Amino acid sequence: MDISIQDLGEKDCVCDVLILPVTEGEPGRYRFLGKPAADAVRKGFSRKFAGRKNELFAVPAPAGFSAEWVLLAGLGKKHGISSESLRQAGGKAVSYLRSNGVKKAALSTAVVSSLKLSPAAFIEGALLGTYSYERYRTEKNGGAVSRMTILSKPSADLKRDVAWSKAVSSAVSFARDLVNTPANDMTPSRLAAVARGLKGRRLSVKVLDRRDAERLGMGAYLSVAKGSHEPPKFIVLEYRGGTGAPLALVGKSITFDSGGLSLKPSEGMEKMKYDMAGGAAVLGVMKAVSEAGLPVNLIGILPATENLPGGSATKPGDVVRAMTGLTVEISNTDAEGRLVLADGIGYAKRFKPAAIIDIATLTGACSIALGGEAIAMMGNDGKMMGKLKACGDTVNERVWEMPLFEEYREYIKSDIADIKNAGGRTGSLVSSAYFLKEFAGETPWVHLDIAGTAWAEKEKPYIPKGASGVGVRLLVELVRGIKK
Question: What is the domain extent for residue 90?
Answer without folding.
Answer: 2-152
